[in-house]
Amino acid sequence: MTEPARNAAALWGLEDAPIKLVARRENVVYRVDAPDGPRALRFHRKGYRSTAELRSELDWMAMLEAYGMSVPRPVRSLAGHFIEEIEDQQIDLLTWESGEPLGRAGELIGVEDRAAFCRLLGAQMARLHDLSDAWEVPEGFSRPVWDSAGLLGDMPLWGRFWEHPDLSGVDRTLLFKVRNAADAALGAREAGADYGLIHADLIAENMLWDGARLTFIDFDDGGFGFREFELATFLLRYRSEPDYDALRSALCEGYGARRDVDAEMLDLMILLRALTYVGWITDRLDEEGAEARSARAIRTALEVARDWMEE
After folding, report:
1. How does residue 3 score in pLDDT terms, banded at 50, 70 and 90?
2. How far is C-alpha 301 from the chain's CA centre?
3. Do 138 and 83 belong to one domain?
4. Alpha-carbon distance 25 to 290, whole Å?
5. In terms of DSSP bridges, do strands 145-146 and 223-226 run parallel, antiparallel, or are they unpaired?
6. CATH code, domain with 118
7. How far is the C-alpha of 67 from the C-alpha of 129, rounded, in Å?
C-alpha cells in the first residue's frame, strides 16, 4: 500500500480502511473497502483536466445519479468537497459499482443477446442526454468541447491526427483530404444538429454489466458535443463484427424511442471518432503497448476514411 493513497483516503476519514491498487491507466484507481461499502479512490492524470473541469464532471455525475441513472456517485470529503488536492495531485472518491466491464473492441462479455443489449444501451444514452438537457449547469461549469474545432480544428482535443509520425505520404494526403471534406460536411449540418453534454467515451471498457443493470463509468472525456458522436464512439469498435448492422440498428432503435438519430450525421461522427484515436495515440507512443494500438488506430481511420469518401 502506497503512502500517498493512505494519505488521500484520510481526507475522507478512510485511512484505516483496506486499500488496493486496481488500475493504472489514464487515472490511477484504488479500491477502498469503507465500512459502508467499497469506494473507488481516483488519482487523476496530472495536467489532463483542470480542477474546475473535474469539479464540473463530478457535479454532473451527482445529478445523473440523483435522477436514477446507474453511474458512480461522487462522495464528499470530510471538508465537504468532491475534489481534493495533495501537492498538485487531484483526487476524488466515488462509489464502487457492481458489474464487470464488457470487454474490449468487438466484445460484449456476459451479454447473451447483443442486439437487445444495444437497444438498452441506446435508451440509456438517450436518458443521459435528456437529463443533461434538463439540467441547469452550475456557475463555472467547465468541460471539454467536442465541436467542429475540437474534432477538426487546428488544435483538436485529442491531437493533430494528420501529423502522426507513422503515416505514409499517401496516408497523410488522404487524411488531409478527408479532414477538409468532413469539415465541410459538418459545417452544412452543424446548425441543426443535436448538441449538448455527452459522455464521449462509451466504449465497452467504460460500461459495467451485471446481467441486468448497465452502469456508465469514466466520465473523464465527457463534455459538450454532437449526440451522434455518443453513438459513434460505441459503434466504431464493432464496425468489423459480423453483426454490426444489427447492433447499429438496435442501438439507434433504443435511442430513437426517445430522441432522433440522423443517419448521415452518425456516419460522419463514426469517421470523426476514428480520426480522433490517431491523434490520441500520437502523444502516447512511448507507453507500453502503444505500437500495436497506434497501428490499429491508423488502420481503422484509413479504412473508415476511404469508405466515407466513397459514399
Report:
1. confident
2. 18
3. no
4. 13
5. parallel
6. 3.90.1200.10
7. 12
Range of the domain at 31: 3-97
Distance CA 82, CA 194 (A): 30
User: Would the pLDDT of 171 be above 70?
Assistant: yes
Residue pLDDT, tens place only, 154-168 = 999 999 999 999 999
Cα(19)–Cα(34) distance, integer angstroms: 9
Q: Do 131 and 69 fall within a single domain? A: no
CA angle, residues 140, 226, 189, in degrees to nearest 5: 125
Reported in sequence order, the residue ranges of 204-303 that DSSP labels E, i.e. its strands, are 207-209, 214-216, 223-226
User: Which CATH number does the domain housing residue 38 bear?
Assistant: 3.30.200.20
CA gap 158, 282 in Å, rounded: 9
Looking at the structure, tell me whether residues 241 and 120 fall in a common domain.
Answer: yes
pLDDT tens-digit profile of 217-241? 999 999 999 999 999 999 999 999 9
Whether residue 7 contacts residue 20, with contact meaning beta carbons closer than 8 Å, is answered with no
Task: Give the Cα separation of 31 and 40 in Å (integer).
Answer: 5
* Number of DSSP helices (H) and strands (E) in the chain, helices first: 9, 11
Cα–Cα distance, 209 to 220 (Å, whole number): 20
What is the phi/psi pair of residue 127, to 5°? -65, -40
Domain finish residue from 64, 81, 97: 97
Q: For the chain, what is the domain count?
A: 2
Helix/strand/coil (H/E/C) assignment for every residue in 142-194: CCCEECHHHHHCCCCCCCCHHHCCCCCHHHHHHHHHHHHHHHHHHHHHHHHCC
Cβ partners under 8 Å of residue 150, min gap 6: 144, 156, 157, 225
